[in-house]
Amino acid sequence: MINFTQQAGFGLRRRKRAEARFQWAGRGAILISLAFLVVMFVSIIRDGAGVVWQSQIAVTVELSADEVDPENIGDASFNSILKEALREAFPEVDSRKEKKRLYGLVSSEAAFEIERQIRDNPALLGGMQTLWVTASDDADLYISGQVDTELPEKQRRVSDAEIAMLDQLLADGMAREAFNRGFFTSGDSREPEIAGILSSLAGSALTLLVCFVLSFPLGIGAAIYLEEFAPKNRMSDLIEVNINNLAAVPSIVFGLLGLSIFLGTMGLPRSTPLVGGMVLALMTLPTIIIASRAALRSVPPSFKEAALALGATPVQAVFHHVLPVAMPGMLTGAIVGMAQALGETAPLLMIGMVAFIVDVPTSILEPATALPVQIFLWADAPERAFTEKTAAAIIVLLTFLILMNLIAILLRRKLETRF
Amino acid sequence: MPDGTLIITRSGRSRWRDSLIVAVMAAAAGVAILVTLGIVMSLVFETILFLKKIPISNFLFGLEWSPQTAIRSDQVGAEGSFGVLPLINGTLLISAIAMAVATPLGLTSAIYLSEYASKRARDWVKPALEILAGIPTVVYGFFAALTVAPFIRMTGGQFGFEVASESALAAGLVMGIMIVPLISSLSDDVINAVPQSLRDASLGMGATQSETIRRVVMPAALPGIAGSLLLATSRAIGETMIVLMAAGLAAKLSLNPLDAVTTITVQIVALLTGDQEFDSAKTLSAFALGLLLFILTLIMNVIALRIVKKYREQYD
């Protein structure tokens, strides 16, 4: 008898330990997932934060009338003016190889930057001027302290000679780190130090605009019909099953649809926000319909019944009394759908929105790219400096997504407090 | 009397307008069907063109995938080989790794959240997990290629393993984390649908909470959980960006997670970006792959959605 109780006692202890283990497994699983999230965010922010600062180098250029004709600025060779100025700054550099290194300290766009500064401010003309131009990506790595000088010379991107020149510039106050406006105000470029996200941001905005204009009315119309007017028959069932399945179709398949029908059959222009928006609209339609139906369902039936009792037609009852109450919920669904569309990449690759776009698109019929596609393109680029740009573009994308979701959450709160 | 006529005409007009509005909305609902039809028709049409060039048995049972456009039409292997099995192999290998990560994490999180966590903890942890589902896949791809893959390569190297720089393991691991919230939220619904009376009965017989969960709640929720796992697998199979950025292009028949493999989705992108000529077997094969992917995921989704739906109703 005693033996029995003892056994039960041991058994109980074992079972309690099993219980504790089970609970810890649950906590552990949640912690692992959240830890992954944190590590990912931290590593991306660490990689991308540096983009806020950009290295610049000052060059003292001669802008006398001999070099630059004030009447005809475009005729001047800013490239040779720039090289001249660099040689003046480092008179000891004479071999071809060293000169090449010297010219490589500034971005290959630096000559254009000088020209632009003069066009913006013609008063600069007529003498020696010290102007700031963007440093090259390798020089930027050194100036921002990302080059490990302990490494043997062969293993780093920046040579000892370049480091000596940069050190001299830094000591003279001719090199600095400035706020990187260019990242937000210029388009893509082959040169990482010049590349910015404005063109892809504009592309994303235009694409989302098309997507919203198409999917919101369609989604709301479909939701109202299915929830309030559709007869309960096989057709309605079919539509319902269909919508649920569409929500789970891989996004790349929508891209194939766009390629084959919008580009192939309908002959719409390739790589444009118009086609991108259409494809994304079809993709987000199920999300919007499902969310809008839930919003309609949450409106108490008494609203509609009261309107009907007072003589409103069913359409009037729904549009005047149910829809306004369900609107915040529908908008929430639409914003969530738009957030999804903003982050979508694969279908856009299918319809050619992977082009190299420098100019900021201004209409939905111009070739454009989108922010996530830009991230994909930069992530693929071999230059190390693009990694920083990629991470920074991701931070911008995530910021937009967080903002959109915050708005959605606030709207949902508002809806919930009403009843 | 004239007043009465007026009312009749007005209501007649508004009735006409009402039915027009309803018809327009019904048409909007019909767009959903049109989209499905459009997908099926465009894929089937191009696939038929493809199968005219490449016999279906070569496509479905071929062991080699190397689509190339011939420089001369008479050269050896001008058509390339379009055997889809290496791609299916790669797709399933990566999906299996993803599910091996996501299933235990997602299920145990769901159980903890629905059975143990306080309401406060639930209110915080659930949205936090959902963030994982809201992050664009291109971000996961970047993280997988830039951070996870080199890490695995380095760790594997220390233990003497040869790890490809674009390994299936890196892509699968990251994809697994991505689908955790999908599994946990669907399973959470299913577990919550199990009636409290079942739990009470088990606890009343002296079972501990974990025994109740393992022996009573889980078996009762099993079909629904299977449905959610199926849905998650279909998501993994159709995922593009993570594998595109982290898994590479090498079509290989391999079950080694440290190898570089390629997937159906990656090949679709590879075939259709860059220069393309319409009507070449190479371009058309992308649509055949698309159809295969569509059918595969559709079957899984239909079964999964039916199970989940039926299961929810059963206890309501």
Automatic annotation (TrEMBL), chain A:
Gene Ontology terms: cellular component: plasma membrane
Transmembrane segments in this chain: where? 24-45, 205-226, 246-268, 274-296, 391-411
Record domain ABC transmembrane type-1: where: 201-407
Q: Name one GO biological process term.
A: phosphate ion transmembrane transport
Note the topology in the membrane: Multi-pass membrane protein
Localization: Cell inner membrane; Cell membrane
Q: Which Gene3D superfamilies match?
A: MetI-like
Whether Transmembrane helix counts among this entry's keywords is yes
GO MF annotations, alphabetized? phosphate transmembrane transporter activity
Name a Pfam family for this protein: BPD_transp_1
The UniProt similarity line reads:
Belongs to the binding-protein-dependent transport system permease family. CysTW subfamily.
Question: Entry's NCBIfam families?
Answer: 3a0107s02c (TIGR00974)
What's the name of the protein? Phosphate transport system permease protein PstA
- Corresponding gene? pstA
UniProtKB/TrEMBL annotation, chain B:
- Give UniProt keywords alphabetically: Cell inner membrane, Cell membrane, Membrane, Phosphate transport, Transmembrane, Transmembrane helix, Transport
Looking at the record, the residues that make up the ABC transmembrane type-1 domain are 88-304
TM helices/strands, residue ranges: 20-45, 92-113, 133-152, 164-183, 212-232, 284-308
GO terms under biological process:
phosphate ion transport
- Cite the GO molecular-function annotations of the record: phosphate transmembrane transporter activity
Major location, coarse class? membrane
Q: Provide the protein's localization.
A: Cell inner membrane; Cell membrane
GO cellular component terms attached to this protein's record: plasma membrane
Family named by the database record = Belongs to the binding-protein-dependent transport system permease family. CysTW subfamily.
Q: Which NCBIfam families match?
A: phosphate_pstC (TIGR02138)
Q: Tell me what this protein is called.
A: Phosphate transport system permease protein
Which organism is this protein's natural source? Roseovarius aestuarii
